[in-house]
Amino acid sequence: MAYKPQYYPGNTSVAKNRRKHMSDDVEKVRDISDEDLTALLGHRAPGADYPSTHPPLAEIGEPACPVREVVTPTPGAAAGDRIRYAQFADSMYNAPAVPYFRSYHVAINFRGVDPGTLSGRQVNEMRERDMEEYAKRQCETEISDFGLAGLRGCTVHGHSLRLQEDGTMFDMLDRRRLEGGVIVSDKDQVGVPIDRKVNLGKPMSEAEAAKRTTIYRVDNVPFRSDKEVVEHVQKVWELRTVYGFVPKA
Amino acid sequence: MVRAASIPGKPIQMKVFPSRLLQPHTAEKLLNEIDQVKGVIRMLVGGKNLPRKVTCGPGTGSDVNHPNMEVIHVGDVAFELHVMVGEVIVEVEDECSREELRKACERALPFPFEFKQGFFIKTKATLVDYGKYGFKSKTDESINLEDERMLGLMDPHASADSNLCIISSGEEK
Questions:
Q1: Which of B21, B64, B65 has the CB atom closest to A162's CB atom?
Q2: What's the gap in Å between the CA of B162 and the closest CA on chain A?
Q3: DSSP H helix total and E strand total for chain A
Q4: Average pLDDT score over residue span B51-64
Q5: Can you tell me the distance from the alpha carbon of A17 to that of A103, in angstroms, rounded to the nearest whole number?
Q6: Is A199 helix (H, G, I), strand (E, B) or coil?
Q7: pLDDT in tens, B13-29
Q8: For chain A, what is the mean pLDDT?
Q9: How would you classify the pairing of strands B40-49 and A182-187?
Q10: Is residue A161 less than 8 Å (CB to CB) from chain B?
Q11: Among A42, A170, A177, whose Cβ lies nearest the Cβ of B21?
């Protein structure tokens, strides 16, 4: 029988959503063009070539190495792209993703990624074109709801704040806002104005966000209501503690 | 003008903490409703900072132009909001004004809010206040401030011009 990964335990909607994020079995909910995404990321002008930090690997002539023969370079690494980043902040008010599950999603489903997981934001450093591929995936699917999340390279303040009256997450730099029922963005992720208004789609309703979230909350799906997850977490905790005391075990 | 930080009697302080961050028009409505309550001595508006320019990262120096940085009118005063209002601390003359204050907030806010009594604004001068204002005179060691109700309403290093509004009461108009 073929191996089927078991990503996460539990039977609640939150556990199921966590499995979906980890396995990349997520629904596409909006379209963002490559040019719009490039403008939002702000690392290069839309339509411009990818600047490189070294010549393509094929031109360099790599040394004989069994590991290099086994591991195919990612398109970004093969072309010699620069390392660039994308950073997301998610509201703790039932945003679809949380930093940990953004990290799981990208680390499991993409290669050549250096994830940074923090309490309220999640940053990934990758070769530029690889980074754009992953950022597009996270932006276009149910992983991101731009009412409750944001592409924020700096000044990420907002994830633990109360929502605004219009139900969106506070953004000090006003990168994106609710206009005519949709979220639009006219600044890149570090707050520099861009030459377009990018439509980031309709924000999820409260009920929809509660259904799609990966956050356990007492006012939605409490963590302790999922016995299998509690058991799993306790087991991991116990094994870490035991192995911490007896490293050879 | 009263010299004491609060009106004689037993002033109480209340914190109004809405479940959402307020848009300027709701904040304006709330502050005006509170202003109408009899016995309000002072209000302290708090919230999330709205910067004029990006202060960190590669975009440092770019204009923010936040749409919530609006001029609002409270009583006979107009001022620009520098924060997205998240809480309002109100000092009222006595316990009798508390329920009226709660009703004012219920009228203004379309969503739930917390309404807590406590000690939120200082009522006595501290060392930094004496450092800024000094003593009244060589013989009078009270703080050299015309109206002590200003104490605790702003950072001692901030200027009163952009941080403090004095709203005239109904009788003064």
A1: B21
A2: 20
A3: 9, 7
A4: 92
A5: 14
A6: strand
A7: 999 999 999 999 999 99
A8: 94
A9: unpaired
A10: yes
A11: A170
Verify whether the Cβ–Cβ distance A192 to B62 is below 8 Å.
Answer: yes
Kindly provide the b/e burial profile for residues A142-165, where b requires at least 16 CB atoms within 10 angstroms of the residue's own CB: bbbbbbbbbbbbbbbbbbebbbbb
B32-43: average pLDDT: 93
Tens of pLDDT, residues A168-207: 999 999 999 999 999 999 999 999 999 999 999 999 999 9
A157 chain-B contacts, CB cut-off 8 A? 48
A166–chain B nearest CA distance, Å: 9
**Residue B152's pLDDT band (cuts 50, 70, 90):** confident
Please give the radius of gyration of chain A, using alpha carbons only, rounded to the nearest integer: 20
Question: CA end-to-end span of chain B, whole Å?
Answer: 16
- Spatial CA neighbour of A106 closest among A129, A134, A139: A134
Separation in Å, CA of B62 to nearest CA in chain A: 6
For residue B28, what is the DSSP state?
H
Q: What is the ipTM of this complex?
A: 0.88
Q: How many residues are present in chain A?
A: 249
Whether the pLDDT of residue A227 is over 50: the answer is: yes
- pTM recorded for the entire structure: 0.89
Nearest to A136 by CA among A27, A36, A9, A2: A36
